[in-house]
TrEMBL record:
EC number(s) from the headed UniProt entry: 3.1.1.61, 3.5.1.44
tRNA processing recorded as keyword: no
Example of a GO biological process term: chemotaxis
Modification 4-aspartylphosphate, positions: 58
Molecular function GO labels: methyltransferase activity; protein-glutamate methylesterase activity; protein-glutamine glutaminase activity
CDD domains: CheB_Rec, REC_CheB-like
Active site as annotated: 190, 217, 314
InterPro entries: CheB-like, CheB_C, CheY-like_superfamily, Sig_transdc_resp-reg_Me-estase, Sig_transdc_resp-reg_receiver
Name of the protein in its database record: Protein-glutamate methylesterase/protein-glutamine glutaminase
Gene coding for it: cheB
Family: Belongs to the CheB family.
Region described as Disordered: spans on this chain: 137-180
Residue ranges crossing the lipid bilayer per the database entry: none
């Protein structure tokens, strides 16, 4: 997409009504809808014909569904794709499969009074479509390939005024028993985040005995499935947070959609969280800042904060709080971030101790907790 130009979009949905509503919202938001598709096959053809900057892709469509169309597009003409998914368990599963195939992110389709709810969500939809359109899908493919094969990219630890330490790399993690007692890490991410959060958790060894809190900007109805996927793909016991939930070493909580997750108490290596529906922070709920700031206030043992890909500035205040409390902070680098908004804002605080490509984020976390 040329700098300063309006994004060009293909809208794919089997519902004529939804195609019209989505197209109208995008056009009103300054996005040029160059084609509409009734199914995945037409979406693939529209991408070939119009070379858009972004595709909004329905999940369930006849002839070819959204995951098949995403796979075809990413194989033949890589294009940033935003999945539009209804709130059902089946659609949630397929949506995560589409992310694995290369879709950048997803947006929950409205239910009930569709036109009224879509109108309420129109600013969010325009923002995320604009953000996804700016993603370079070729770079994203390179990152995915590097993630599978292993990366040789060095980590930059000069972004902030953190303590002197060895640079994290792809070297094997420290041996069992070489970590500090009772470490906690808070991970925050947004656009492009689900697959990279999955990678970070899968790279963390159980012998580090971490307490892990994850805040991924994700609507209700999807965070439970997200937690199940992370639980299956990591050594940690991962579950969706509930009000009053407690975790100790080797366990992780995923912030529930539409609820802030606060750290409410900490004692003898176990922490408790509370869920609230207080007003959105940074226009989002759950907010990374809420979890990081309450963790910094409450946790007395070693603490680290990690900001991964995402749009906006959520997490910047949380990084400041963790840094002020003596914790260690890491941000994903620009080259491997689908959207560099959140990491960039965190780095700009001057409170980030290390900037790492996604392959090295887990190593950076582990380095912060190594016994020296």
């Amino acid at each position: 997409m040329a700098v300063g130009s309006s994004p060009r979009a293909v809208v794919a949905d089997d519902s004529h009504f939804m195609r019209s509503v989505i197209s109208d919202i995008l056009e009103q938001g300054g996005i040029d809808v160059v084609s509409m598709a009734r199914n995945g096959r037409e979406a693939v053809e529209a991408v070939e014909a119009t070379d858009p900057d972004v595709v909004t892709m329905d999940v369930e469509m006849p002839e070819m569904n959204g995951i098949e169309a995403t796979d075809r597009i990413m194989s033949t003409r890589p294009t940033p794709i935003l999945m539009l998914s209804a709130h059902t368990d089946e659609n949630a599963d397929v949506t995560f499969q589409a992310l694995e195939k290369g879709a950048v992110d997803f947006f929950r389709k409205p239910g009930g009074e569709v036109s009224m709810e879509m109108s309420r969500l129109q600013d969010q939809l325009v923002d995320i479509v604009t953000s996804v359109a700016a993603v370079d899908p070729t770079d994203s493919s390179d990152v995915a390939s590097a993630r599978t094969a292993g990366s040789d990219v060095a980590t930059d630890v000069d972004a902030g005024a953190g303590p002197d330490r060895d640079e994290p790399s792809d070297a094997e993690p420290a041996a069992a028993g070489a970590y500090v007692d009772n470490p906690t890490v808070v991970v925050g991410s947004s656009t492009g985040g689900p697959t990279v959060v999955e990678q970070v958790l899968s790279d963390l060894p159980l012998d580090a005995d971490l307490r892990v809190l994850v805040v991924q900007h994700m609507p209700s109805g999807f965070t439970g499935r997200f937690a199940e996927r992370l639980d299956a793909r990591s050594e940690y016991d991962v579950r969706e947070a509930s009000d009053g939930a407690k975790i100790g070493g080797g366990e992780a909580l995923i912030a529930a959609g539409d609820y802030h997750m606060e750290v409410t108490s900490y004692r003898r290596g176990r922490l408790r969280v509370g869920l609230t529906q207080d007003p959105p922070v940074n226009n989002v709920r759950p907010a990374v800042d809420v979890t990081m700031e309450t963790a910094a206030e409450t946790i007395t043992d070693p603490l680290a904060g990690v900001i991964l890909t995402g749009m906006g500035e959520d997490g910047a205040a949380g990084v400041r709080a963790i840094h002020a409390a003596g914790g260690y902070t890491v941000a994903q680098d620009e080259a491997t971030s689908a959207v560099f908004g959140m990491p960039k804002r965190a780095i700009e605080t001057g409170c980030v101790d290390g900037v790492a490509p996604i392959n090295d984020v887990a190593a950076a976390i582990l380095d912060a907790f190594e016994v020296t």
